[in-house]
Amino acid sequence: MTPEEFALVETSLTASTNMQGLVNVSTASEAVLMSIPGIGTDKASALVSYRQSNPSQANSIAWVADALDRDTTRVSLAGPYITAHSYQFTADVAAVGHYGRGFRRVKFVFDTSDGTPRIVYRQDLTHLGWALGKQGRASLLVAKGMR
Question: Hey, which of 63, 92, 140, 141 would disulfide with 57, CB 3.0 to 4.6 Å?
């Protein structure tokens, strides 16, 4: 992000030390892992490297202790914030009107942690344009015989 781009969003940024929910250490990016207490910037890359070299252990969080060199302080700090399961999913949904005219594009985030999926976030993305690009839309119209 350039300094000019950052200036456009900086007034909307917030920071919190009150994390809610769990982070899937089997899929989280290094940047996300950095935000977890006990992992931080100094151990996030070690977790990513360990995870990539031991993919068979991804169904549990037991490997995190090995990746953190069995440092009990770090493990106990990170423990309450991590899981090996995903409970939130994102969907980018595009709907096309009759005869290929008009469309809506909406991003949804679903939370399934309580067993029943529920929408926890919704954002209209229509202003970003067709989700599959101009070529994808043209191909769809040709396939439907509308072009």
Answer: 63
* Sequence-distant (≥ 6) Cβ neighbours of residue 49 within 8 angstroms: none
| Domain map (residue ranges) of the chain | 20-83, 88-143
Q: Which residues of 33-68 are buried (b: 16+ CB within 10 A; e: fewer)?
A: bbebebbeeebbeebbebbeeeeebeeebebbeebb
Per-10-residue mean pLDDT, the chain, length 147? 79 64 87 91 91 86 88 88 86 80 86 88 86 70 66
Q: Please, which residues have CB within 8 angstroms of residue 80's CB and are 6 or more apart in sequence?
A: none
Q: What is the pTM of this model?
A: 0.56
Helix (H) or strand (E) holding 46: helix 40-53
